[in-house]
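Hey, can you fold this?
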Amino acid sequence: MTTFNVSKPLTFGIEMELKIIKEADGLLSPSCQGLMAQLPQATRKLFMPEATQATIEFVSTVHSDVDDMLLEAIEHLSVLKQTAYLSGVALVWHSMMFCKPPSTRCSTWINAIGSWPAETALRLN
C-alpha cells in the first residue's frame, strides 16, 4: 500500500507530463535521462522520468500559496526548456486549459514559459 507524507491542511502541488520531441523530425525522443543529467541538482529533483523515456514529469513541492507554486514551476520549467533547446529537442505538453488569458497568473506564465496550456499540444520552446 502506498503511504503519503503528512502535510498541513489545504496544501497542493502540480504534476505536468511533457513529451520530448526531436526538433529534426518531430518524433518522440527517448532522451529523458540525458536531459535530467544536464539539469542542476535543485531542478533535477523536481523531475521524474516516465517509462517511455520520451516523457519527463515535473512534480512541484507542496504549497499553500498558488503564487509560490507558480513561481517554482516557472523557474524549473524554464531551466528544463533551455536545457532541451540546447539538446535539440522540444517539449510538448498535452493538457486541458485551466484558465484563459489575460488573468495575471496566466500572463505571468505566458511571459515566462512562452505559452499557456490549452486543449491541444503546446511547444514550450
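Oh, and this one too while you're at it.
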Amino acid sequence: MEEYLLSILEFFGQAWWVEVKTESPKCTYYFGPFLRKQQAQDRQGGYIEDLQGEGAEIVSVAIKRCKPSVLTDYQEEEADDEGTLDQWATLTGQRS
C-alpha cells in the first residue's frame, strides 16, 4: 500500500526528497523518494556521510517536496587559464 501511495505522491511532485548541494564537485544530488518527511530526515545522515567519504564538500542539505528531473545534476565547470577542465568533470565522465 505504501508503494502505491508513494507512486501517486511522486507523480504529483509531492513525495519527499533529500536535496544535497556540493561545491566540490559542483553538483546537486537528490535522494528519495520518501512517503514521509521523517523518513527522509532519518536517512539524510547516511547520504551526507557517503558523499563526504567520496571527498565532496557539502554546501547545503534540504528536505523538500519536489519532482526532480535528474537525480544528480552536475553544474558546468568553466575552463581555467590553461583551458583544462575541473578534475571532477573528467573523473565522472561528463566531459572528454
